[in-house]
C-alpha cells in the first residue's frame, strides 16, 4: 500500500488522514491464476489496486482473444468504462498469476467524493491514467510499426518481458507470436 500512499501524498498533495480514510474502506481479494476479476457482460463495481500479481484485459471477437491492457503490481485496475457508465463491460480481466487486489466499490468511492471533494483529485488521477494509456495505445496503432509499439510497451511497463508471456505481448501488439520473435531478433541484431 506504500505505492498508493505515495499517490495520495506525493502526486496528489492529499493529507494522510484522507489516505487513511480511503484505505480503511479497501477490501482485499485474492485471485488464482486464470481466475477472472470481471467478465464480459457484467457491470464493474470497483476500482482496484494490484498489491501483487499480474492481470490482462482482453476482448473477444469470434472466439479470438485480443489483449488490450496489462495490470502489474501497483497498477490501478478496473473495467473503467463500465465503472463510469455502470453498464456491462465488453472486456474480461483475467489473473495471469496468483494476484491480490485491494479494491473500493463504486458506491463507497462516490460517497467519499460527496463527503470530501478532495477525493475528486484521486478520481481525476485515475481517469487520467486510463485515458492517457488508451490514447497512447490507439495512436500507436495508427502511427507506429510493430517494433515501435513493442518499444513503447517496454517503456510503459518496465520489465514486462520477464512477467508476461510472449503470446500475450504479441496479442497486445496486434501481431502473431512469430512476428514478435522476428522483431526481437532484428532489434537484437541491430543493436
What does this entry look like structurally?
This protein is an alpha+beta fold and about 190 residues long. The protein has a domain at about 1-115: Jelly Rolls, CATH 2.60.120.10. It contains nine helices and eight strands. It has helices spanning about 1-10, 15-25, 80-85, 105-115, 120-145, 145-155, 160-165, 165-175, 175-190, and strands at about 25-30, 35-40, 45-50, 55-60, 65-70, 75, 90-95, 100-105. Strands 1-8-3-6 form a four-stranded antiparallel sheet. The protein has a four-stranded antiparallel sheet with strand order 2-7-4-5.
List the helices and strands and how they pair.
Elements: H1 2-11, H2 16-25, E1 27-31, E2 36-38, E3 46-52, E4 55-61, E5 64-71, E6 76-77, H3 80-85, E7 92-95, E8 99-105, H4 106-115, H5 119-143, H6 146-156, H7 160-163, H8 166-173, H9 177-189
Helix pairs in contact: 8-9
InterPro entries: cNMP-bd_dom, cNMP-bd_dom_sf, RmlC-like_jellyroll
Domain Cyclic nucleotide-binding: 13-113
Pfam families: cNMP_binding
- The biggest beta sheet, please? 4 strands, antiparallel
Order of helices and strands: HHEEEEEEHEEHHHHHH
CATH superfamily of the domain at 2-117: Jelly Rolls
For the largest beta sheet, what order do the strands appear in spatially? Answer: 1-8-3-6
Mean pLDDT: 93
Morphology: globular
Portion in helices: 40-55%
Number of helices: 9
Question: Rounded to an integer, what's the Rg over CA atoms?
Answer: 18 Å
**Total DSSP E strands:** 8
SS-derived structural category: alpha+beta
- Unreliable residue stretches: none
Our estimate of the beta-strand percent is 15-25%
- What is the terminal-to-terminal distance? 39 Å
CATH topology of the domain at 2-117: Jelly Rolls
Amino acid at each position: 500500500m506504500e505505492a498508493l500512499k505515495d499517490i495520495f501524498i506525493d502526486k496528489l498533495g492529499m493529507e494522510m488522514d484522507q489516505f487513511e480514510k480511503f484505505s480503511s474502506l479497501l477490501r482485499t481479494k485474492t485471485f488464482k491464476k486464470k481466475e477472472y476479476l470481471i467478465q464480459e457482460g457484467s457491470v464493474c463495481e470497483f476500482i482496484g489496486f494490484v498489491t501483487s500479481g499480474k492481470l490482462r484485459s482482453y476482448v473477444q471477437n469470434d472466439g479470438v482473444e485480443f489483449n488490450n491492457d496489462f495490470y502489474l503490481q501497483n497498477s490501478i485496475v478496473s473495467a473503467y468504462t463500465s465503472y463510469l457508465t455502470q453498464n456491462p463491460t465488453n472486456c474480461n480481466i483475467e489473473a495471469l498469476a496468483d494476484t491480490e487486489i485491494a479494491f473500493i466499490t463504486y458506491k463507497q468511492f462516490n460517497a467519499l467524493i460527496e463527503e470530501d471533494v478532495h477525493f475528486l483529485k484521486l478520481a481525476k488521477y485515475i481517469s487520467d491514467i486510463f485515458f492517457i494509456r488508451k490514447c497512447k495505445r490507439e495512436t500507436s496503432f495508427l502511427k507506429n510499426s510493430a517494433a515501435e509499439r513493442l518499444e513503447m510497451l517496454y517503456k510503459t511497463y518496465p520489465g514486462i518481458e520477464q512477467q508476461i508471456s510472449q503470446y500475450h505481448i504479441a496479442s497486445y501488439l496486434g501481431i502473431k507470436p512469430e512476428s514478435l520473435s522476428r522483431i526481437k531478433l532484428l532489434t537484437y541484431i541491430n543493436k
